[in-house]
Write a structure and sequence with these properties.
The chain has about 290 residues and is mainly beta. It contains 3 helices and 26 strands. The strands form 6 sheets. A 7-stranded antiparallel beta sheet has the order 6-21-26-23-16-19-18, with no helix packed on it. Strands 12-13-10-17-20-15 form a 6-stranded antiparallel beta sheet, with no helix packed on it. A hairpin with a 5-residue loop joins strand 8 (about 55-60) and strand 9 (about 65-70).
Length: about 290
């Protein structure tokens, strides 16, 4: 016997065309035509107050252009310099060197981050509508993040990167050449991300899959495999048609999805010049091709 139809009280919506079941905090649905439960992405909370983890207390506030407000005592926080909104004078700003400087240099990746130390409060906000997502990482845990979505992280979180595999993924997967990886190797920590629009999370079981628009994913567990899928569309009228591209994610693990698709910014002459200095002429040319595709 199937479970009776129920209302999702946490999100205030009925599950249309099926039944709602829960495995822990993760929602799945059973359709009358398909008795196998399927994963349903769930909305991240948009407001968080007085949350403590990894040596800091933080708050997420604002519905349109959200603000991350962090109370710093003994644990420094590093971030991209252009996201600082306000701070107390007791917070000092310095530079944090990232590991693998030579590898970063030849790849055109940043080798320094801005770091906040001291005792006081500091706030960050990206210049764009969306949602800030806190990802708590316990010691030994890591998360893969698409480029340009990082906002800030506690000092115990390492920031590395990996190349996107496959020419198809690079050209049509809209993830760029690299994927950022954040790992809590030295203790518990937090990485905060900025998602465009609203951000949802789906937890896939082993072997379970979901297809996501290439600009829609924001983070995933390292255990989740990402592959490019292509579907041809033909109208039958003079054999006209086209192709649709998806990123297919295969569990086990979490996938974060943003409702406003992210498209990499168009490179300027200045940014291409900086890439040439930091990562070599080839790196600048490749970035120019990718950013202007």
């Amino acid at each position: 016997m199937h479970p009776r139809p129920t209302q999702d009280h946490q999100f205030g919506a009925w599950i249309v065309g099926g039944w709602s079941v829960r495995h822990g905090n993760h929602q799945r649905t059973i359709s009358p035509l398909n008795p196998i439960p399927v994963a349903i992405p769930q909305l991240h909370p948009t407001t968080v107050r007085n949350e403590s983890f990894g040596g800091v207390t933080y708050h997420l506030e604002g519905e349109l252009v959200p603000v991350l407000h962090v109370e710093i005592t003994s644990t420094p926080v590093y971030f991209e310099h252009h996201v600082l909104l306000w701070k107390h004078p007791t917070i000092s700003i310095g530079v944090k060197s990232l590991a693998g400087a030579f590898k970063r240099l030849i790849s055109g990746m940043p080798i320094f981050m801005t770091e906040a130390k001291g005792m006081g409060h500091i706030a960050f906000s990206r210049d764009g509508a969306g949602q800030i997502i806190p990802l708590h990482l316990t010691r030994g845990q890591a998360i893969d993040v698409r480029e340009h979505q990082f906002l800030a992280a506690t000092d115990s979180v390492d920031f590395t990167f990996q190349r996107v595999n496959g020419i198809g993924n690079i050209l049509f997967g809209q993830s760029g050449l690299f994927i950022d990886t954040f790992g809590a190797r030295n203790g518990d920590g937090i990485v905060w991300l900025h998602g465009y629009g609203n951000v949802f999370e789906v937890t896939l079981q082993a072997g379970e899959q979901i297809d996501v628009e290439p600009g829609g994913w924001i983070y995933k567990d390292p255990s989740v495999r990402m592959e490019l899928e292509t579907q041809s569309i033909a109208t039958g009228f003079f054999a006209s048609g086209g192709q649709i591209f998806f990123n297919r994610f295969t569990g086990p693990g979490r996938v974060g999805i943003q409702s406003m698709y992210y498209h990499p910014p168009v490179a300027t002459t200045e940014s291409n010049t900086q890439a040439a200095v930091g990562g070599g002429i080839l790196g600048a040319v490749m970035r120019g091709v990718m950013d202007n595709r």
